[in-house]
Amino acid sequence: MNKLAISMLVGTILCGSAWAADIEAGKAKAVTCAACHNTNGISSIPMYPNLAGQKEEYIYNSLKAFKSKERTGNNAAIMWGLAAPLSDDDMKNLAAYFSSLDPSGK
After folding, report:
1. Distances in whole angstroms, Cα of residue 7 to Cα of each of 3, 14, 16, 61
2. Are 2 and 74 in contact (CB under 8 A)?
3. pTM surpassing 0.85?
4. Are 68 and 18 in contact (CB under 8 A)?
């Protein structure tokens, strides 16, 4: 294998999404999220973050951290309860869904 192909493979593994997620499954699972983050991923409540257009890996890692209770502060306890029943696939699907949304809310 040539150096370019190896570099591209390593770059994809390190920088890109290493999983195949189901955006439609994420959308279905996101119904609960809409109460705080809105259906379009743009929160109408200032204390809750916008999720639309956020990086997929960031959302996934955040959900994992809430599930394990490693992420604390502010309203983390609310997210602990919401993330607790999520499977790894659920978290990947939610991450794919929210990252696919337009951050302008359109």
Report:
1. 6, 10, 13, 25
2. no
3. no
4. no
